[in-house]
Every structure is written in C-alpha cells, then in structure tokens.
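Form 12-C: Joint structure prediction
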Amino acid sequence: MKDQHLISLTVNGEPHEVLAESRRTLADVLRHDLGYTGTHLGCEHGICGACTVLVDGVPARSCLMFGVQADGAEIGTVEGLADGDRLSDLQEAFSRRHGLQCGFCTPGFLMLAEAFLAENPGATREEIREAVSANLCRCTGYQGIVEAVTEVAESRRERA
Amino acid sequence: MTGHGQGWIGKSFARKEDHRLLTGRGCFVDDRPRPDALHAAFVRSPVASAARVSVDLSEVSGVDGVRAAFASGELGVSGLTALLDREEFTATSMPILATGAVRYAGEPLAIVLAEDPYAAEDGAERASVDFEARQAVTSIEEALAPGAQGVHDELAANTFLDVAPFSDDEIDDVLASAPCVVRTSLRTGRQNALPLEPRGCLAEWVDRDEQLVLHVSTQVPHQVRTAAARCLGLAERQVRVVVTDVGGGFGLKCVVGREEIAAAAAALRLRRPVKWIEDRSEGLSASFHGRQQQYDVRAAFDAGGRILALDADIRCDVGAYSVFPFTSGVEPLMASAELPGVYRVPRYRARARAVATNKAPTAPYRGVSRPQIVAVMERLMERAARELSVDPLELRRRNLIDSFPYTGINGITYDPGSYRESLDLCERRLREEGWFDSRDGDRRVGIGFACFNERTGYGTEAFAQRKMAVVPGYDISEARMDPAGWVTVTTGTSAHGQGHETTLAQIAADQLGLHPDRIKVRQGDTDLVSYGWGTFGSRSAAIGGGAVRLSASRLADKIRTVAAHLLDTEAGNVDLVDGWCRRRDNQEDGLPIAEVAEVSYLRANRLPKDVDPGLSAEAAFDVLTSGTFSNATHGVVVELDPGTGSPRILRYLVVEDCGVVINPKIVDGQVRGGVAQGIAGALYEEIGYDAEGQPTAASLMDYLVPTASEIPEIGVEHLETPCAFTETGAKGMGEGGTIGAPAAVLNAVNDALRGTGVELDALPVRPEHIHRALERNR
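Section 2 - Result
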C-alpha cells in the first residue's frame, strides 16, 4: 500500500519530477532517485550534518525532511558549488587549509558554510567556529575547516 | 642510486584526492548506483544474553517489497574464527548469524532482503524473536567473579586470553624494599571509533569473471577477501574486494564484519546484487567498540626518582567475540608488551587478560591500548614526583630512554627518537608563552604532559611475535609506466582519508624524476595487488611507502638502462630529472622519459637485446625489527569552571617526531585529528551499558562526539629523526595524537585539582566528577 506522490524539485538549477513515497527522506530522493550522491548520510537522525543541503537557500538536514516536504523547492547540493571543473573559493580554501581528510563530512560542511557566510558576511573566526559546530567531522580536528571558512570570509569582505 | 633531489618528499603538495571529494564526485560504497540491487536489513537480538534463541520469519515474506529472508543455517556460510597460536588463548567462533545462544544486544539473527531499504526494515520488524534470557555479564568484575555466567561455554573464567608474558620472581622483593612505590588503578570507558561513513557493502556475483565482487567500506580489502572466501567456501580468486572512497575507519573497519559476509552469501544464493548500509544506531550498538580496560599497576622508584620495577595487571573488556583477523588478544598483548613506553624499566612483570562480556565485540581502535598505557605511565610519573618532591618533568627526564637503539626489558628494540628533545621543546614553548605563571592565580588552571612513543611499522616479525595465525606485516607494490610515460603505482595499503594517493605519488615521483601529477596511485582492489595488509596501525607510509619507493626505484633502474642504450652511455650515467633522462656527464644531452616509454612498448626493436619489453617493476617491503617508533610530547593547559567543573582547554601543543615528513600538511592533519579523538576519549565519549546489557548510547543524542566548539586549536612542532629501518626514513604517525591526548588531558585536570585531595584515574573525566571534587574542597 505504497502512497506515492509526484513531486517537483529544482536541484542546482535543474528541474526534476520524481515519484516518492511519503516517508522517503529528501536525502534518499536526492541521492538514489536523482543521483546527487555528493550529499552523504552519516547518522540519519539530524546530528552529524553530513546530509546538509540548501532548501530555498536555507541549510537543512536532508535526512530529517521528507522528499514531499520539498515539493516545489529550490535545492542546492555540493554538486552545484563548482563552476564546471573550477572550484569555488570555499572549496579551494578547504583543500588549501586541509579542511578535509576522508571527505565524507565535507559536502555538509561546504553547504553549511556557504549559507552561513551568505547570511553573516562579517562573521568573526569565533562565530565561524560556533557555526560549524553544527556538523561533525571525525578526521580533521576541525582546525582546517575553521581556517578555510575564516579565510574565505576575509577575502570575500575585501572583495566586497 | 640516483633519483634523489627532486624534492617532492617534504612538500605540502596539494592532495590529489581533494577535487573529487570537494565536488561530490567521491564514490563511497552507498554512492554506487545499482537499481537492481536488493537491500539488506538485519533482525537483531533484543537481549544481551540468551541460552536459546529462535527467529520466526514467516510474517516477513508477505511484506510489500520483501524478496527473501534467511536465519542462521539457511545461508550456507561458516562462522569467522580468529586464531592465536598460543596455549593461553581459547578460540571461539563468531557465527555470521547467531545460532543457539545470543551474546550481545544487537547481535544479528537474520537477514531480510527487499527491493528498497525501507521495505527491508519493514520486513525485519515483522520477524519475531523467541529467546530464553539469562543473566548478562556486563563488566569485567562480573565476568571474573567466581561462578559467573559463561559468555561462551568453552571459555574458562570468561577469559579469551590470559598471558603473563613477563615474569620476575624477585620483583616482589624490589617492590617491598624500594624507597618509593606508587600505584594507579586506571579505568577507561568503552568507545566507538565512529567513522562518519557507516560500514556497508554491495555484493554481486559476476558470471563472466566467475567472481563474487564485494564493494565494501573497509581498511583491509585482502583480509576481507580471505575471510569471505573461507566463510563462503570459495577460492580466494573467486572473490574480488573493491574499495573506493572510505569515509574514515580508525580501526573499526580493519576487522571483518558479519553483515558483509551475510550480504555476500545472500547475493550468491539469490544471484542478485545485495547492498547493506549500516545505520548509526546499528553502528553504535552492534558494530565494534574499543578501549574498555582496567589497570592495576605498581611502580617502584629509587630515592633519586629512577624506576626500579613495574608490576602490571591488565584486564580488557573485549566483548562477546574474538574478531577476525586480529583476535581479542590484540588489546592485552599490545598493552603488556608496550607498557614501559619511553622509559627505562629494569624489572617488569605483567599479566594481561582479554575478558569476555555480553557486549559488542571490540576492534583495534586507533592507538590500541597505547592511550591507556601512556595514561598509566604518566600518572605514575606524576605520583612519584609528588612523593619524592621532584619536579615531574625532571623525574621524566631521569627515566627517559636516551641512547639508541635501545632494547627494553620487553624485548622491543626502539629505533632512534627524540624523547628528551621533544619534552624539552614542549616545556620551553609553554614556559615562553607564560602558561606556567597562569597556574599561580586564583583560577583553576592545570598543565598536563604526556611523553610517549608509538610503534608504527609493525612488520611481519612484530606480528609473528604476537603469534597470530594470520600474520600481517609486509606490503607489495607495482610501478608501471605506460607508452606515453605516465605511471601507475599500486599498493596493498588502503586509505580511508590519509591521502595516500598524494604521499605515495610524492615518494614515487622522487624516484622517477616525474611530477606527482604524472603518477596515479591505485589501491583498494584485490585484483590489483597479489596481497596486501591494508591500512591500520600507522603502517602505510613506513611499510607501504617503502614498497612504493622500491618498486619505483626498480622501474627507474629499467628506464635508465633503456635510456643509456638510446643515449649510447652507461645506466649509471643517466639521471631522471623533470621528465627527462639526462647524461650526468653532459646535462645538455638527454631524451624525454616518454621516449623511453614509447620505445619499451611500441618500438621494442630499439631495445637492448637483453632487456624485455614493457616497463614495470614489483617490490615487497617489510620492517624486519621490532618495528618503527615515532615519538612525541603533548602539553595541554586546562581550566576548570569553578561552578560546573567543566574543563576548557586553553592551549594544546604537540611536539612530534615521525622521522622524515613526506607531506607536512597531511602529517599535521593526522596529528590534529588524532588529538581530537584523544580529547573525545578523555572528556566526552563513552558507550555505557545498563545492568541488563543494553547499550545506553545508541544514538548521537547520547554519544557525545565533540564539535568545533570543544576541540581547541592544536599547535604542532616537528623534530625529525630519520628512521633507520625504512626505505623512506618515515616512521608512520597516524595514531600518536589519539595516544597522547588522554594522558595529557588527565594530568592537566589532576594538576588543576591539586590541593583538593582528589585524583581522577578514570576516563572519560566528566564535569560531574570534577564538580564533585571541587565541592568536596569547598
């Protein structure tokens, strides 16, 4: 007795229609129905943040949302950050500052940081540290992540 | 030997892995699209201990989407048995699905296969489990108590392993007559390594290759192949294990899980691909744990503060099963062999036990027993210093090993390190920064240190001494150049975040005179390398890197031979530099390496008569001593909140020596990540169990993983004592951060509590313990 719903999503600017069960999470819709496997699932109960995507520009745990709740929404995932093969300033800073090791938590941190910087362009290093504490990383000890986001905040401010 | 001087080793070269991981193009095991796969869910035991269990799956098959379900006995697999060739060890088998008895809550009883993971879980929920519960054994004390319920019938006194590797008939006399004897009874909590990517696999029978292809999130592809072949009754050739990106392992993924074997067996029976992805509650409660140990140790010192003798009783709560291939002996054997650490210990007695309880089995979690033994030794140093009224750092200096190579009473030969220098530098930095003065005010500030070494290159000889029936150690690499002059290097090590694609390419680049971008490192596929031991125990740079350097150097030799023929000179007169073969006696004369490659494959008529076509070379490397030893001193400054007891880390400094540093950025990242996991074990994380054997931290709501708010910035300074036993001079260093942090943090907390009459010797140290200590003193 599957209850299927036809939903429409725009992911990184691409429109999609997909048939989803009511209980199917947005993460599974993105990963398995639409092939955006860059979004990762680390805990499926909203703590680790690896599944963070942007829903209408706001960071959300895609494991805690059902796909049907995102009907009509604009979704941003990690696949949309680079311009072709050219990395965004944040992605480059993560590499330069060694803000990733195994890379599993990385998409969630990138999406979280993008949304945070858009909302808080004047954020200090300590505010950035607090903001990224929403997500878990098990490899880096967080230092490279904090440094990368801080560096991008500073350079974006200079350019603005 | 030429090929030096390219200088790729030692450079913070940007990681080759990063681009795909930053753009969402990494490929973790659940990222493989397989629309035709069945998805597995497990029916798990609701109780920790039952003498008899049965599973009724009759309601399962009617669930929408479910295609099959198997209980134990219906899968046609044999269990996993890990062996030590020791009389003191009792072997027990771990069935793939529990049969007869149940030994921990969460133990898999049946596998359900469905068209999607949601339906598989629906199906698993419809299974009904009947059991005859019995008293669960939930602690070391309960397990060792006379008349305790047996976890396995065949185990005497609930003990898998009971060894006394070091005995000394006169040690009691030394302890009785010594001017100073100090004790510690240290306990550490059970932890989960918690890789962010849970375990998982995709199993598929491929007719054309007559192979079971098992994609799995593991650190040890070849050991998974060996285990799967044995359990499934296949030849090793009939199993191919493929590992792509792995989202962390930390030791938890260096043993073989039952679920992967069950999924493979189901794929064979059903002739359909089967995928299983662990969820976090399964991971926390029913995968593998580590760290739960108890120590009762006495140390005798002379009046001058020198250690006279060490007497240790070590008990490790290893849970319900011995894991393949390391066995439940890994923690007690490591602890008892390496307890003396960086100190000269003239007399030593140790007993070490692997104790069975009704809890999830343990795997060798990052650092394996070293976090505990370092905490033990560093607590003993602090206590003795106080008893003898000597500065604790001075007391350490009087005992540190300071001439190398040094062979200890434990039979281990330590290669040269900077034990004293790292302590001196760490102390000097914290003094210069004024932290010692910060102890003088009204605030509760404490400074803690930990001096330690970490065995990294455990070669075959070191593992053979452990008497494992499956003996890890060496590694194998092939270096192959294609007709266009690009190189593929294979390795039997298998990265899960450590950046091997970059560091191993740097090693090969220096040998071949090529940019690392021209070198592709391939790993994690059992069809690529005849055998390999994967990545654990910080072995990859030291041993895997040694094999890569040798294979690349042999390939370079062949390139020079061919180039010499084409240049009409001797091989010894050819240097490989920046993609060119240059005459050493005339740097203007030379030819591109790519031309040698083209001749070797496409114009083999131009080769010298005694040279075979093709450009490839294979090499194996092993560390044929007690292993390699990196060393470090950690210094940490902690402030306790006078109201809540909550500790805050004000400064963390690591001075470390891992021999030749191949890529400083990667090394610093390993140190910092390791320290973060060490702080996690010191202050936050613990898997508790209630009296019935139910885990009390089965979600991340209860298992407190520290975030960026709790982990401080971590300063790292390097000393560099090149290793005498490896090809690259590197020693490996993946675990040191985790090893040193608990001891340093515990010492700092106790230093901050000085004058309260309270000493804490259990980890994790929680604010409530500290608060109570402060209250008592109020």
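Section 3 - Comments
Chain B touches chain A through 59 residues (CB under 8 Å). The longest strand of chain B covers residues 307-319.
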